Amino acid sequence: MINIPFNKPFLTGRETEYIRQAVEFGKLSGNGEFTQRCQNYFEQRYGFGRCLLTTSCTDALEMAALLCQLEPGDEVIVPSYTFVSTALAFVRVGAKVVFADSCTNNPNLDTEALEALVTPRTKVIVPVHYAGVACDMDAVMNVARCHNLMVVEDAAQAIDSYYKGRPLGSIGHLAAFSFHETKNIIAGEGGMLVINDPALVARAEIIWEKGTNRAEFFRGEANKYGWVDIGSSFLPSELTAAFLWAQIEQLGAIQARRQALWQHYSERLAPLAASGQFELPTIPDYATNNAHMFYLVCHSLDERSNLIARLKAAGVLAVFHYLCLHRSPYYASHHDGRPLPNCDRYEDCLVRLPMYYELTFDDIDFICKNCANHDL
Ligand SMILES: *Cc1c(COP(=O)(O)O)cnc(C)c1O
Fold first, then answer.
1. Pocket test for ligand 1, best of 58, 126, 152, 178 (most atoms within 8 A of CB)
2. Tag placement on the chain: N or C end, fewer CB within 10 Å?
């Protein structure tokens, strides 16, 4: 029996009250009062360009892919060790995905090997801030500037995290966040597109509203609205935004709690890491830690399987993470065959420990005690 789950969605307590308010306002579809409150919050708090709530981070990435105006055969550089959506959004618009390997000391894309992946067909780089820890964004932006490429940050896990003092999601031309129930702040399913390049804002609003200039019309900037471009229904209803608003109000408390839990894990596991049982996550000097995730890197698939089994026997659910996309059934035949050894290693050896607001220090002590492999 599992006594300590891997994740438990945290409710601040005001979600249903705000949903009731949204119902009473009498406007349930998207882009109403709560949507605008959430969007304004992110724009002001983090200095993001225009923010548009979406029904998921996947949708935000799909909007980003449409905004990049790719032609069939154009290339997009994506880490292989990531969630399917990072690549899928670009494959759907006909682009070819070129996979990047991860760093040796963390799962983010290896920027030292980035420039070698650029060809005359390359149009976009998609850095993923794994575990909410920043990629080396100066290196990414330099390669992008030299080759005139767009940068779309997959910041799904990276709310309230920073690179050299700059909020993640504020650096690329575009950025995508997730409010899926597994992330730090949640809306069930939900996401957000950040448009930092002012030249893309008008078109983003149109794509968001089914290819119409409805957003412009509602601001009183057009006297009628109609079909002006491609798009889809990317905006969530007010019910989702009302839920998210209750989470945003508690963002500070949520982050403080998660960081305290993360710190406790790190202190408790340090002796086991020092004795060579596994590696702890490394946070580069340029990055902050938003405590989205606590992971370990074991020495082998066998050692990881044993660790997961040991924890499971103790009633603790620990889980591995991504299956590399360059070897996925859908895309392996399109991959150019380059080995990506670091991605392979994280697929085999990385394990995530329980991390959620209501986890206790006692839970962590119990988990860490069971992480010890007495055979090693
Ligand atoms: C969660 C996640 C996504 C997908 O987010 P959804 O909101 O579920 O669509 C995409 N990329 C990364 C890196 C993620 O962690």
1. 178
2. N
